[in-house]
Amino acid sequence: MESGPLRFALIGDGDRAAAVALLEDARNAEHLSGYGKGWCHQVRILVDRGVRDGSMYVGRLCEGSDDAVVSVLQVALVDASAPVREATIEYLVHHTLWGRGFGTHAARACVALATAPPLVAERVSALVVEGNAASRRVLAKLGFAAEPAVQYSMNGVERVVVRYTIGV
After folding, report:
1. Is residue 142 a contact partner of residue 104, using CB atoms and an 8 Å limit?
2. Segment 12-26, tens digit of pLDDT
3. What is the pLDDT of residues 39-94, one digit of tens each?
4. Are 138 and 104 in contact (CB under 8 A)?
5. Which of 61, 74, 104, 106 is the most exposed, fewest CB within 10 Å of its CB?
6. What share of the chain is helix, strand, coil (3-state, %, to 5)?
7. 37 phi and psi, to 5 degrees?
8. Which run of H or E residues covers position 30?
9. Where are the beta strands (DSSP E) in the chain?
10. In whole angstroms, what is the distance from residue 115 CA to residue 107 CA?
């Protein structure tokens, strides 16, 4: 993969296959375990449909002149009618790129998308599996505050997760 500046873009027809490959990569799925497999499946459906409905976006970070997809991102409003507009962010970085700053770039891109029109979130949150120290460090570095860990169930899999939030 040629190195170069990272760029954010919504997933379009030309990069759906690369995004799906990242979501289905066995090493990424192994890292995410049961909790993340459900998210990957959900995002894959959104990628296939090309969803951009104004309350949820699925995007990608790409690198180099070949536009290689290095991360898949999801940003969604929790409840547009709530007194405080909150968006949730989720991101997945290809396992071959872990530890090189791509998670930080992905999280920053998510926050930027969440706080810009049309979403205009006042608070941004993320759920992280308690054992995912790298993602926890990324969010703390960006100023997110951790809440106490809680049991969380998704797709029949119980996990201990930490919710991170930041007001913007």
Report:
1. yes
2. 666 667 777 777 776
3. 666 666 666 555 555 556 666 666 665 666 677 777 788 877 888 899 988 888 87
4. yes
5. 104
6. 35, 35, 30
7. -60, -40
8. helix 26-49
9. 6-10, 56-63, 68-77, 86-93, 123-129, 145-146, 150-154, 157-167
10. 12
